[in-house]
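Progress note, sequence design subtask.
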């Protein structure tokens, strides 16, 4: 019965079009492989219409302890719709080549429960489309743990350097602005 209701709700959403379901912004077109999983993350399906904090991460970076603060932000604002997306990258040569070790750092060492992808290229010509779009809107990440706050329409509200800790007041203000944005 529940599966039928879910299917019916999806069918109604598809028939009603954008007035019922959030449209997918260009920023979220595509899929990324999920860390320590066989499935991929359909960015539109998972994040469209939601406020989002996107962070490029690296296991061996001196900023890796920020995982704890990012997890705290996620838990604090999750009920208000906030999603956090961690995208490990070796662009700055501080990520392990073995994604199992990356997963261990995230999930075991820091207790991350927000969405994490397999390591990706986030800078330059080879950057994944998500980070190309972020760079066009706000500039490329200059180091690991660069933070992008994205509103419900897929627009970057603010970006923050690696040195900006997750408990920073300006970061929190940007998150609250993204949360209060209309889908």
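Output:
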């Amino acid at each position: 019965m529940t599966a039928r209701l879910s299917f019916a709700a999806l069918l109604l959403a598809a028939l009603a079009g954008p007035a019922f379901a959030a449209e997918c912004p260009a920023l979220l077109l595509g899929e990324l492989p999920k860390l320590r999983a066989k499935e991929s993350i359909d960015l539109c399906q998972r994040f469209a219409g939601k406020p989002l904090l996107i962070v490029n991460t690296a296991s061996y970076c001196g900023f890796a302890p920020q995982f704890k603060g990012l997890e705290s932000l996620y838990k604090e604002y999750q009920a208000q719709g906030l999603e956090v997306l961690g995208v490990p990258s070796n662009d700055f040569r501080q990520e392990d080549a073995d994604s199992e070790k990356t997963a261990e750092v995230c999930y075991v060492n820091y207790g991350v429960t927000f969405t994490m992808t397999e390591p990706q290229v986030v800078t330059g010509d080879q950057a994944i489309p998500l980070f190309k779009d972020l760079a066009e809107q706000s500039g490329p990440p200059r180091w690991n743990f660069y933070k992008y706050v994205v509103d419900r329409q897929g627009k970057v509200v603010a970006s923050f350097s690696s040195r900006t800790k997750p408990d920073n007041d300006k970061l929190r203000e940007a998150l609250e602005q993204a949360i209060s944005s209309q889908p």
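Helices lie at 2-16, 43-47, 66-77, 99-109, 129-138, 169-180. Work on this subtask will continue into the next period as scheduled.
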